[in-house]
Amino acid sequence: MVKIPNEALLIGGAILAALVLSKGGGSTSIPFINPFSNLLAKAETKAIQKLGSNIDTLESARESNMSIAESILGYERGIADVKISRQQTELDKTQQYIGQQQKIPSAGGYSELAPPQQNWQNNARALLGKFSNATIGGSLFPDFRLINNQQNYNIVAQQARYQTAQENITLANQSILSQTNEIQRLSDVYQTTYGDISRYS
Questions:
Q1: What is the pLDDT of residues 81-111, one digit of tens each?
Q2: Residue 168: inside a domain, yes or no?
């Protein structure tokens, strides 16, 4: 019996396999299966699912943060509105006060009672005080006649009220300017410090 070496058997088997595979073209070929293709597809699917989940989580967090931001902004707006409202109320009161003071008229005939050269034209309150020291029916001053009687007293008292009202109006106008400036300042602070919801987005 003829003994065939192992190497010859291996080579012969390889040739036979090549002939079998080459016969019949592509219809008899054995497809190549990549063992990693299935794992890769699964990994891609898992990554896409995780990415979608992360996007949903981020969107949910963003919506939650926007809701919180809107609440904070509403709270801040409420505080600013209260402060501005208080100032506006004070401003309204001051304007009403000025309106009341403007209704107080000057005294007719006062200029005849207190000549300008005597420096009493703008000081009716001081002149009013002189009545308490003068004798009824007598003159308040030796250098010009101002008889101490009820009629003259009423004229001087009315003029004193008028001059006080004018001083009050001057002071109130200063308050109006201050209150208006404060309202503007609060509005500016609100806009620059708090702004709108876009600062949270």
A1: 888 889 899 999 999 999 999 999 998 888 8
A2: yes
Q: What distance in Å separates the CA atoms of residue 137 and residue 178, rounded to the nearest whole number?
A: 48
In 3-state terms, what secondary structure has residue 119?
coil
User: Which residues fall within 8 angstroms of residue 73, CB to CB, at 6 or more apart?
Assistant: 194, 196, 197, 200
Indicate if the alpha-carbon torsion angle 74, 79, 84, 86 is positive or negative. positive
166 lies in some domain: yes
Residue 99's domain comprises: 62-200
Distance CA 38, CA 77 (A): 58
Number of domains in the chain: 1
Question: In this structure, what token pair is assigned to residue 50?
Answer: 């995780």
Find, among 33, 50, 30, the residue nearest to 42 by Cα.
50
* Per-residue pLDDT at 174 exceeds 90: yes
Q: Is residue 53 part of a domain?
A: no
Question: 104 — alpha (psi -120 to 50), left (phi > 0) or beta?
Answer: beta
Select from 80, 56, 59 the least CA-distant residue to 186: 80
| Region of residue 109 (left: phi > 0; alpha: psi -120 to 50; beta: else) | left
- Looking at residue 24, the DSSP 8-state letter turns out to be T
DSSP tag of 139:
B
Indicate if the alpha-carbon torsion angle 138, 139, 140, 142 is positive or negative.
negative
**Residue 131 maps to a domain:** yes
